Amino acid sequence: MSVERDQLATSHTTSERNLEYIQRKINAFKDGTIDGFIQGMRIPNHREMYYYNQGYDFGVVLYNKQHEDSE
User: Fold this and answer.
1) Which of 47, 3, 10, 8 is nearest to 28 (CA)?
2) What does the alpha-carbon distance between residue 49 and residue 28 come to, in Å, rounded to a whole number?
3) Chain mean position to CA 33
4) What is the DSSP string of the chain?
5) Which residue has the higher pLDDT, 28 or 11?
6) Which pLDDT belongs to residue 30?
7) Which residue, among 28, 57, 33, has the nearest Cα to 45 in the 3D structure?
8) What is the tens place of the pLDDT at every residue in 17-40?
9) How far apart are the C-alpha atoms of 22 and 25, rounded to whole Å?
10) C-alpha separations of 37 from 27, 31, 48, 49, 50 in Å
C-alpha cells in the first residue's frame, strides 16, 4: 500500500483547516470572556456569536464571583 504525496498534503491541509476552525472558536470565547469580565459590554455582532456569547456569560460570572468574594 503506497501513499501518494498529494494525499499527505491534503490530509495536512485538512488538519490545518480544523486547527484554524478550532482557533477561531477559542478566540471568540476569549473575546467574550474579556468583554464580560473587563468591559461589561457585549458586542452586538461577532463572527462566532455562539462561542462569543458563551465566553461573555463566563466573564460575567467571573466578574460577579470576584465582587461577591470582595464584599
Assistant:
1) 47
2) 8
3) 9
4) ----HHHHHHHHHHHHHHHHHHHHHHHHHHHHHHIIIII----S--TTHHHHHHHHHHHHHHHHHHHHHH-
5) 28
6) 97
7) 28
8) 999 999 999 999 999 999 999 998
9) 5
10) 15, 10, 18, 17, 17
Q: At residue 70, what is the residue type?
A: S
Residues listed for the chain: 71
Domain ranges (residues) in the chain: 5-70
Q: How far apart are CA 25 and CA 18, in angstroms?
A: 11
C-alpha cell at 9: 498534503
Give CA angle at 45 (41, 51), nearest 5°: 80
Whether the per-residue pLDDT at 10 is higher than 60: the answer is no
pLDDT digits (tens, 9 = 90+) for 46-71: 889 999 999 999 999 999 999 887 77
